Amino acid sequence: MxxxxxxxxxxxxxxxxxxxxxxxxxxxxxVVDDGCPEGSGDHVEAECNDPRxxxxxxxxxxxxxxxxxxxxRAAIDAGAAVIVKLDGDGQMDPGWIPRLVxxxxxxxxxxxxxxxxFELEGLRSMPxxxxxxxxxxxxxxxxxxxxxxxxxxxxxxTAIHAAVASRLPFDKLARGWFFESDLLFRLGIxxxxxxxxxxxxxxxxxxxxxxxxxxxxxxxxxxxxxTVKRIFYSYYLRNFNIASIEILAGLALLVFGVAFGASAxxxxxxxxxxxxxxxxxxxxxxxILGVQLILAFFSYDLQNVPREILHRRLEPAPPxx
Length: 321
Fold this sequence. Notes:
The chain is an alpha/beta fold.
């Protein structure tokens, strides 16, 4: 069974149109009113006659991540096999749901997300500030999640196998706009297989509640924290290999070379004396070696993307005949 989760906050003008576009392949739809001041949940209950639709309410606004997790719980309890997360603002075409869930149904992925950057023609409709912001956030997400092949991390049009969703640490996932990026980090820790489906960006006259310039600092800090945690979990806590040595030695050499070179330059400037060739070599060689070791680590990390389908190992074995 495919279930759809729609977090709702200030989407009253578009939510009915979004619901009407959900095809018969979806057997349950959970509309999560996240303390919407427009009363989106009441509006859906009053105007939507689709028997698949169920409204769940938060007494106060908790964030898009919290609303999505509430929907995930409801979908898992309802027996869903695949859970699609769809925004209610009309920027995502529900007609793409069959394409989005296909890699999961065919056993090729555990989590699938849309990618609005695949086709260059479609980017013309996207505001330039969003293109730039998403490009920067995408690179940060690659570092923090380990999914180097994934782009457009803030795209909220996603599908996940319910068996994988049930293994997520719901109490640790970000509740706000960082949810999609934090989810990728958590999926990386689980070693779930993630893939993308190219889809067009849809921008009409709606206004997004996400303002990139306001969350850029928060996102940068959280991505840095997740990057450190991912490297520690993957290369020291769960495993120890050549990459573990490369990143540790590379960072140590780089820091030493930069610190020694800066100290020598400051002392030379004060004494008005040029640096000797030996001093330059002592500063430069650790930097060169450190950069090479760090690049070697990332080369290994690029090849360490999860490839074994997780939900096959999580699902119960079929009964013996």
